[in-house]
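Each lists sequence, tokenised fold; shown next:
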Amino acid sequence: MSFDLVREDIKIRRLITRDSMQIILENDIIVPDTKADLEKVLFSDADVHVVRTEISEGNLAIDGVIRYKILYIEDSPDRSIRALDTTADFRHSIDIPGIDEEMEGEVRCEVEHVECQVINERKVNVRSILRVNSAITEKKELYFISDVENSDDVQLLKRHITVNKYIGSTQVTCNVKDTVEVPSGNPAILEILRNDLKISGIEYRVTDNKVIVNGNIVIKTLYTGNDREKSIRLIENEIPFNQIIDFQDAGEEADIDLSYEIRDYSFEAAEDQDGEYRFINGEIDLVLNVRGSIKQEMDTVVDAYGLRTNLSLEKINADMEWLVCQNRSQAVIKETLAFESDIPEIVEIYNVFSKPVLSEYIVEDNRIAIDGYVTNYILYYSNSPEDPICCYKCDIPLKHQVEMRGLKPGMSCDIKLDIEHSSYSMVSSRDVEIRLVIDVSTKAYDKRSEILTESILEVPDDESRSAKQMPSIVVYFVHEGDTLWEIAKKYRTTVEDIKRENKIEDENSITTGTQVFITRR
């Protein structure tokens, strides 16, 4: 017997493991010669990004950069506020059994906590806790049988499946440059103390072989004014960006997974025509990661047998990660923070810096419960002659529930928290009301396993099962769990013949004990 196999081949992206863990970094930071001696640290935090990942047998290595942003009081009669903005490279290895160099690693790092200890007036020790979220995947080519042609002898059982066909991924760096001006009511810049950046309003659309991304970078700049009081000022600016990404095989039907992070930035004060530093030249490297797939429906052969010959099916197990659902929601927090009696009273608030931290989450049916906290640093001018500039730290609990249809316990989730909007008001000299809107981006993934037929081979006939040894008519009594396909395969007939000869219209209507007549073909 001869027959032709119809083969399908697709690329899939298979999840090997997804994990989240904490790592600790520790660095000594030297105050540059251009900076004044350090008396005490007001507060410190950091930004972090991953530069490169490298996978070897059983190991994931991460190369990254952490950027420390430290505000301190200088050791001088003025006791002015100064800034340390410095970077440190780091490398961390994670043992992950079962991975190898053919796989790919996607890693996102977040700073959860920064703690400073003053060693002396020119040196501080910084200890940071990072949350490392990793996903290890591999790209795999699948070949399977969808049909058999040119043979009346072969009986096929097919199943309709939906696969997530992987079309590729790419990474581009969007370099954004712009110059912003200090508002006319503010003093010129003496020193830029810190810059805080976030991405806002990001959108994308897919056209033929291109993904077009646009959004805004919101920049908050804290600086010391060049006035008699050396006042501390905060200004906010927004810089738009647009990036066209070439992406082969992307069309309107493609499912696009876009992730992004600010990898590096620099801001320098620049003079206006009067020689005052009223401009800020900014340069930002924004990294965009695009991954694409297309849901494709196709048939696959689940089982097959020959009426007059034996067939052997070789099967493979294809594991695929599936984006089940995604959601963007907002958690709103309104809290009044009360200072303890031993904390200097507030005269004026310069700014409140807030950072959300995810502690844990619980996946339930159609819902995920998120638990965490928001760390707040209130930088303010106090009524204390000894400590005119103070910083008060306070954590606010964060609890939020996200409704996501299709979510089931056991699914893995990727959750990202960002401060979308923050504001504050001074209620009294010891009470500050903080209002926060937190953007909660949630993606839920599930593993799906498909058993696919890779090959169908003809094998020598087993004489004991030869059709010649079978009687002309067989009376078969249906057992529990039997299907017409299994019965037809056992006696080398067809489902259609059994239905016709037994006047069965609906094959699901057969029950245990049903009498079925089978005529030898």
Observations:
- The radius of gyration is 33 Å.
